[in-house]
Design a protein that fits this description.
43% of the residues lie in helices and 11% in strands. It has 6 helices and 3 strands; from the N terminus they run αααααβαββ. It is elongated.
Amino acid sequence: MITQEAKKKQAIVKYALRKGKSKASRVYGVSLSSVKRWCNQYDGTWQSLLPKSHRPHSHPNRHTKREERQIRNSFKKCYERYGWDGVYSDLKRKGYTRSYSGMIYAAKRMGLVKYKKTKKKSRKHRRYPELLIPGEKVQIDVKEVPYNCLRGKALRDGKHFYQWTAIDECTRMRFVYGFEEHTRKTQPNF
């Protein structure tokens, strides 16, 4: 899409160089100032007409060379042991007046911190092998049934129920059973 626009601009510029900028702006329906700007940019290739960044080259509130030098020195001295907080407190002691986030942003812009991209673990290297036989491995869990889930006679008598759950890891089939006691005798033999 961007290359198509650049090639269209190239065609307009070539027409403007042959017939004139005013006529090119009327024929192609583009403002005269745009045609003049493109003619000044054009060096014979369509790549010269690609859109350029609008980002400013400098900012009035950017860190000064002195502040950058302070950040670099404090970073070397304190970062390994105390992290960003240590660097910032060291800078504050030396008269640094900027914000914490501004200091971190400046340090990253100066290239003091290089982040290593974490590699995602591939699914080939699983911690446990894939189970193919049903019943080979079963997860068993027990929990007390919450008071607000009880109804009728069980709620009136103030009984406690325990829910035993068994999940087969191959088929993910689930078996749930409830008991009034939580003892070795009531433990189901799955």
